[in-house]
Amino acid sequence: MRNSKVTNLLFIFLLSAPFIFQVYAQNAGVEKMHQLYIDMIDTENLDHIDALYTKDASIKNSDGSMVSGLEAIKALYSATFNAGKYNIALKTIDETVLNKDYMFVSGSFVFSKIDEPKVVQSGQFVNTLKNVNGHWKILKSYRYSVTPNNAAIVDGMYKAFSVGDIPAVLGAMDENIVWNEAESNKLADGNPYIGPDAVLNGVFARLGADHEYFKLADITLHEMSNNQVLATLRYDAKFKESGKTYNAQAAHLWTLKDGKVIAFQQYVDTKKLADSEKK
C-alpha cells in the first residue's frame, strides 16, 4: 500500500514537473528582463532596447501618448537620456501566463531624476510579453500614473509637525509653494510666502519665537476635488510675552500636485489670536 502511494505521488510529480519548470523559467525570464531594463536606465545603453522590445512593440505612456515601433521607442529613450540621468525601481506584482508564447506582467515603478531629486514619477505598468526565440520581450506596454493620496500626505505633515520634524514638513512642499496666512493674522505681513525657506523663516520660526507652546488639535481632514484637502482644527497655544493661552478655531486649505503641496491658505479666528497676544 505504501509503495502504491509513493508511486502515485511520483506519477503526479512527473506529470506536473514540466509545468512547474516552465513557470519557473518564465518567472526567471521576466526578472532577467526587468534587470536588463534597470541596467539600461542606469547605463543609458540604447543597445538594450533590441533585447527588451519586439520590432513591432508599442508603449502607451501615462499621459495618454503612444509610441509605436522599435525605432520610435529608441528615440523616446534617447530624448529621456539627453534630459538627464535617472534611476528606476521596478516591482513585479503579477504574472499571468497565456501560453508558451505570451504572458501578461503587471507591476509598479518609481522613476527619479538623479540631479533633481524632486522629479519623481511613480505608477504601474501592464506589459504583454512575447517569447522571441526563447527570450521574453515587451510587445505592448501600458503605463498608468498612481493618484497620490493627498489626505495621507497632509496627515503626514501634521504628524511630523506635532513631533517637531520640520524638515519632513518642508520636504512635502513644492519648491514654489505659495503660502498665505489669514488676513489680519500678524504673520500675514509676508503674504504670499514663496518656497519652503520662506515658510520656514516667515512662519514656523516666528511661531516658535512667539509661543511657549503651539499645538494643533482636533484635526479632521476632508478630501476635496481639484487635488485639494481641507483641514478643520484648533490651535492650542500660549504666547510668551503676554503669558496668555488661547484655543482658536482654524481651517487650512491645501492644494497638491504630483504628491507635493503647491499652495496653502489659512483661515483662523484672528481676533482671538490678537486678544491673547495683548498683555
Automatic annotation (TrEMBL):
<feature type="domain" description="SnoaL-like">
    <location>
        <begin position="154"/>
        <end position="262"/>
    </location>
</feature>
<feature type="signal peptide">
    <location>
        <begin position="1"/>
        <end position="25"/>
    </location>
</feature>
<feature type="domain" description="DUF4440">
    <location>
        <begin position="31"/>
        <end position="138"/>
    </location>
</feature>
<dbReference type="Pfam" id="PF14534">
    <property type="entry name" value="DUF4440"/>
</dbReference>
<keyword id="KW-0732">Signal</keyword>
<dbReference type="InterPro" id="IPR037401">
    <property type="entry name" value="SnoaL-like"/>
</dbReference>
<protein>
    <submittedName>
        <fullName>Nuclear transport factor 2 family protein</fullName>
    </submittedName>
</protein>
<dbReference type="Pfam" id="PF12680">
    <property type="entry name" value="SnoaL_2"/>
</dbReference>
<dbReference type="InterPro" id="IPR027843">
    <property type="entry name" value="DUF4440"/>
</dbReference>
<dbReference type="InterPro" id="IPR032710">
    <property type="entry name" value="NTF2-like_dom_sf"/>
</dbReference>
